[in-house]
Amino acid sequence: MKSKIAAKNMDIGYEKKVIIKNATFEVNNNDIFIIMGASGCGKSTMLKVLTGLMPPLKGNFYIDDIDYIKADEQTKLEIMKKVGVLYQSGGLFSSMTLAENVALPLQKYSSYSKKAIDDLVSLKLALVGLDGYNDYYPSQISGGMKKRAGLARALALDPEIVYFDEPSAGLDPLSSARLDNLMQDINQNLKTTLVVVTHELSSIFAIGTNSIFLDAKTKTVKARGNPAQILKNPPNEDVYNFLTRGKYDEKRAE
Amino acid sequence: MGDIILTLQDKTLTLTLKGNFIDFEDGKLYQNIAGYLPENIIINGLEINKWDSSLLLILFNLNKYANENNIKIENLYMPQGLIKMLKLALVVPEHINRETMPANESILEKIGGFGLNVWQNTLKGTIFMMTCFKSLWLFIRRKSSARKTDFLFAFEECGPNAMSIVALISFMVGLILAFVGAIQLKNFGAQVFVADLVTIGTIRIMGAIMVGIIMAGRTGASFAATIGSMQVNEEIDALKTMGISWAEFLVAPRMASLVIAMPFLTMWADFFGISGGAFVGILALDIPATEYFNHAFNAWSMKNFWVGIFHGFIFGFIISLCGCYYGINSSKNADGVGIATTKAVVSSVVWLIVATGIITFVFERLGI
């Protein structure tokens, strides 16, 4: 199967500080790919690299077999048009209504008429369960709704890949489960590849079809594959601990 | 109060804990234990009545000390809660190998680092400035991603909403200038020249500088705080991943609005500065109104007026660039936004004065 995203021998980090070394992994088309690991292991940094916000210290990553690092600015822009990102806080522009937020990428990149853009915006908001909230400002809606509105904006240009940064963070279990269902619906019905950075175990096992585990101690990708399979054959006690909410530690303490 | 009794027998040190261990401290305990050179330590907690974290800390350190020095340690007859907390504390996974802080730098390294830092910041600032000017050019040609509403909101904030404070401060500065001038001019019986002093001083430089300082504190700070908060809320990241230029979307409308508003605010400040001077001249110094305004009109020159407006125009660039620069480079936390705002105001004021010095020098040389 052709990979949608492929990272090859990537070192990621800030200036002289390497956070993850030699990361190599592939995200297949239509995967729900989980990037998991303990707090501070470099998940969000990995997401920043994959979304083009910062370069890797070493190595490359490919989207549809195009080397993103070596691509010129125009190619990068074309690649990023295929990509949507849902940020941890939603990343909505607070001075704009939800409709204006969702319309922004459409106005920038599509040639639709104003009427068509308005209709598309309403459709995208309806898709995430926010029908009728067009004129609300981000400050007027709840955290869960902000995430859904952020998702509507991420889906505005019908992207082939959507990145999620800690989608469950700050949500109650029900809202979190609903967001998981929504992500699965998008994945299955729109055939979108999802890359999810999370440490929420319920989400990892509920939606993840493929994953990597980033290990802060060794600064490497410690495990790859389906999360349930990794749990069956954990490569070490850290991975087992993470996936079982610290059962190994509990045993040590007894 | 608790008591720790130490007894040594066959290289086995027994610590018997008695009484209430609340806010307990024993500074010499570890020294005393080390002095015994034990091979085994037994801690007997049978007679502990009450305890808090101070006792837990002692037990934690003792266990760590024993482990590090290969001393066998036994915790006997401890209260149930205390032994559980101790196990919890001791079971924490070993510290992850983070990079340690660099060792103390020598003076040469510090000087080198400072030089490098200055160079990098200069380069970064220059690139930022060029990017913003390019975005402003695109904005003027209506080819940028900026929204018209953002420009109008920013203009309302920079222009009409700032008029009242500019009027008040300028009036007061004109008033102060007149009073201070009058003290000296009185010695020569030339009080009427207060009108000339206030008019020339205000329209050539003081009006623009006062507007500059007010707008640096008001609008420059607002730009830095707004854009800094957008960093915290990941709005800038969202713009970047959408392929929308932050300079076009955020900086250009703000810069355009302030650059347009500043010359008008300078004129507004000139009017109120002169009015403040007139207020003192006519009411406090008893200069007849016709004579005062006669002197003021004679002192007025279009050359000075345009010099003041030019200052306002340049200050518009400086304040918007400083505000946006520190906002864009703000750390993604509340503290970072506060620091960005402070830096924006301080650097705006510093650059205003530097720019005034340079403009004054150049105009002096050119005879303007």
Provide a descriptive summary of the structure in words.
The complex is a heterodimer of chains A (254) and B (368). With 254 residues, chain A is of the alpha/beta class. Chain A folds into 2 domains: 1-82 and 165-254, Rossmann fold (3-Layer(aba) Sandwich), CATH 3.40.50; 91-158, no CATH class. Chain A has 10 helices and 10 strands. Chain A has helices at residues 43-50, 73-81, 98-109, 114-127, 143-154, 173-189, 201-207, 227-232, 237-243, 247-253; strands at residues 3-14, 17-28, 32-37, 58-63, 66-67, 83-86, 161-165, 193-197, 210-215, 220-224. In chain A, the strands form 2 sheets. Chain A has a 6-stranded mixed beta sheet, sandwiched between helices. In chain A, strands 2-1-4-5 form a 4-stranded antiparallel beta sheet, covered by helices on one side. In chain A, strand 7, helix 6 (173-189) and strand 8 (193-197) form a beta-alpha-beta unit. The longest helix of chain A is centred in the C-terminal third of the chain and has 17 residues, at 173-189. The radius of gyration of chain A is 19 Å and the shape is globular. Chain B folds into 2 domains: 3-90, 2-Layer Sandwich (Transcription Regulator spoIIAA), CATH 3.30.750.24; 131-366, no CATH class. Chain B has 368 residues and is of the alpha/beta class. Chain B has a 4-stranded mixed beta sheet, covered by helices on one side. The interface between A and B is medium-sized, with 31 and 22 residues.
Largest contact between chains: A-B, 31 and 22 residues
CATH topology of the largest domain in chain A: Rossmann fold
User: Count the strands of chain B?
Assistant: 4
- Can you count the helices of chain B? 12
CATH architecture of the largest domain in chain A: 3-Layer(aba) Sandwich
Query: CATH superfamily assignment of the largest domain in chain A?
Result: P-loop containing nucleotide triphosphate hydrolases
Overall radius of gyration of chain A: 19 Å
Nearest-integer average pLDDT of chain B: 91
The count of domains of chain A is 2
Assess the beta-strand content of chain A as a share of residues.
15-25%
The secondary-structure class of chain A comes to alpha/beta
- The helix fraction of chain A, in percent, is 25-40%
Helix content of chain B: over 70%
Residue ranges of chain A: pLDDT <50 for 5 or more in a row? none
Kindly state the number of beta strands of chain A: 10
What's the overall geometry of chain B?
A: elongated
Largest sheet of chain A: 6 strands, mixed
Major β-sheet strand ordering of chain B: 1-2-3-4
Oligomer: heterodimer
Number of helical segments with 4 or more residues of chain A: 10
